[in-house]
Amino acid sequence: MIELKGLTKTFGSFKAVDGLSLRVPPGEIYGFLGPNGAGKTTTVKILSGIMKPTAGTVVVDGVDMLADPLAAKRRLAYIPDEPFAYPKLTGRELLRFIGDLYSVPRGEQEREIPKLLETFDLSEAGGELLESYSHGMKQKLLIASVLLRRPKVVLFDEPTVGLDPRSIRRFRELLLGIARSGASVFMCTHILEMAEKLCGRVGIIYKGRLIAEGTVEDLRRLSGASGDHSLEDIFLSLTED
Fold first, then answer.
1. Is the pLDDT assigned to residue 116 strictly greater than 90?
2. Which of 109, 126, 157, 208 has its CA 20 to 30 A from that of 97?
3. pTM: predicted TM-score of the whole model, two decimal places
4. Rounded CA Rg of the chain
5. How many structural domains compose the chain?
């Protein structure tokens, strides 16, 4: 579902992403980890089509992002760490707008939107303007919009920022459901415990380069860690200068 080959992005003399190559198959939750400034958000912005790479290719569900960006973008959803929602729309209106934009049949919208609002405890707020929503409420609404349109690839950049503990647990369950449906999930997160529990594989980027990739057990072997070492221990060991 996701294939990056030789992905490179430079800003002047600074190389934010350096020759990154990876593949994510259907149904996998892939954790993309790295310290601040390692190149995670730049990678996600290129993968989502927001930013063009300096070199390399991005393929989403078989579609080259540079050759046919509209077709590639229709196959994916991107939820950034700072969610944007049109402030003068209500929650329900935003979901209908997203549904219309991505050709979700009106009958399906009428059936699914109330369920999604209820799932995220937004039923009462569904008729309120988004300018009155908190950060966490906007984040939950945008995740609901992803579930409404059922894309092939879902990109999350720090998806649990602003969510309360109950919503984080619900988000984890929904993430597993998205993967079981056959979609690929690409998730940047600093919550390593969640990545360890949810992700089939993890990639660690450091100074723009992919320095390690595999299951948690693969990374334990790579770092020489014992079986009782957590992903956090492994991450800190691998990203020491």
1. yes
2. 157
3. 0.89
4. 18
5. 2
Domain that holds residue 91: 81-150
Pairing between β-strand 201-206 and β-strand 209-214 as defined by DSSP bridges? antiparallel
pLDDT of res. 228: 76
pLDDT at 159: 79
Q: Quick check: is 227 in a domain?
A: yes
Per the CB < 8 A criterion, the answer to whether 155 and 186 are in contact is yes
Residues 5 and 46 in one domain: yes
Q: Residue 155 above 90 pLDDT?
A: yes
pLDDT in tens, 28-75: 999 999 999 999 999 999 999 999 999 999 999 999 999 999 999 999
Contacts (Cβ under 8 Å, ≥6 apart) of 67:
none
Residues 2 and 49 in one domain: yes
Q: Are residues 157 and 239 in the same domain?
A: yes
Please indicate, yes or no, whether residues 2 and 56 belong to a single structural domain of this protein. Answer: yes
98 three-state secondary structure? helix
Same-domain status, 56 and 91:
no
